[in-house]
Amino acid sequence: MEFIETIKAKAREDLRTIVLPEGTEQRTIKAADRIIGEGLARIILIGNPEEIHHLASEYYLENISKAEIIDPGNNPKADAYADLMVSLRSSKGVTREIALELLKNPLYLAAVMVKAGDADGEVAGAGNATGDVLRPALQYVKTAPGVSVISGTFIMDIPDTMFGDHGMMLFADCAVHPNPSATELAEIAVSTGRTARAIVGMEPRIAMLSFSTKGSAKHEMVDKVVGATRLAREMDPTLQIDGELQADAAIVPGIGASKAPGSPIAGKANVLVFPTLEVGNIAYKLVQRMAKATAVGPILQGMAAPVNDLSRGCSIDDIVGLVAITACQAQASAGK
Ligand code: ACO
């Protein structure tokens, strides 16, 4: 996919350090070998060093010798990390003992390494459920200044279509926040617009989706989207945002013109913001399967430093691609 090649070239321009907490997971260690070989990022693997070396020799992975390996059972920085964890979450009941125990869990250790600045980003999820990957990051990496909600966007590359930018679209939130308020939905729209610019190099045209177009239906769910549209415009006046729009009005020019005349977005949206996670998650999976789209993500947005979650069904290519994206997000957040 051309998009991923562009992302890889960008990642190589300014190398970032990405921690992979599932260092003994088969696809992850193979991906790490390729990432190092292709010069996409510096890699930290978390796991038992003996096991990692054994797997590297079993799979003939010559580049793993260039990865830094952190043993969660024998980590020289555990005391310093525990202090950091207590300072951040003593009000939530995190004591030194609890912190040291949590640090034995690679997913917590990775999140704390990112927080401490020892890694620029994290990618995990080949062997763990979304919630287990996200929780440590939500607790310790936290949101970027001015952002209260983390969300997940998918870059959809839809073949043989004129929708979006020659078939390239962003969908959000498809991964994280089940039922956002109007303010949170506005933040999701703004974060997605910024991801479109920073990662895809696309000028976003954002549609706030509903089952109503410009007042065609009356319901509190529609009111939420109308409110979110107004708030999102206030939050970032540089972004082109319109709503509430039905999906067909958002992407089909003729329907956009008849249902929402005068809208700068209707008929030409390239970013779709869904009112709830239910809709977003179902929509991206349907488009992926029924339209044979490539779905890259979820790319988590709004975090103070990038942490990304893989699907447990991911391929080695998926891991390599998501690490390259994470490295580019780290470059973008360092540039702020
Ligand atoms: N943005 C920012 N902070 C958040 C968010 C969010 N979206 N959600 C939770 N938090 C914070 C909370 O404020 C809390 O902070 P605190 O401990 O400092 O007070 C912390 O994270 C933990 O919050 P909880 O609500 O206790 O965490 P919980 O584990 O219940 O939920 C989670 C968080 C895991 C993200 C949950 O919302 C979830 O499971 N979401 C759905 C994920 C999912 O299954 N997606 C679909 C599959 S992915 C796919 O198909 C691609």
Describe it.
With 336 residues, this protein is an alpha/beta fold. The chain contains 13 helices and 11 strands. The chain has a 6-stranded mixed β-sheet, with helices on both faces. Strands 3-2-1-4-11 form a 5-stranded parallel β-sheet, sandwiched between helices. Strand 2 (42-46), helix 3 (49-58) and strand 3 (68-70) form a beta-alpha-beta unit. The longest helix has 19 residues, at 182-200. The model has no long low-confidence stretch (mean pLDDT 95). Acetyl coenzyme *A is lined by residues 92, 130-131, 134-135, 138-139, 143, 149-150, 175-178, 281, 298, 311.
Summarize the entry for a quick read.
This protein is of the alpha/beta class and 336 residues long.
Order of helices and strands: HEHEHEHHHEHEEHEHEHHEHEEH
**Which strand-content bin applies to the residues?**
15-25%
Number of helices: 13
Radius of gyration: 21 Å
Bound molecules: acetyl coenzyme *A
Task: Characterize the quaternary organization of these chains.
Answer: single chain
Spans where pLDDT lies below 50 across 5 or more residues: none
Shape: globular
Mind describing the biggest β-sheet? 6 strands, mixed
Instruction: Give average pLDDT, whole number.
Output: 95
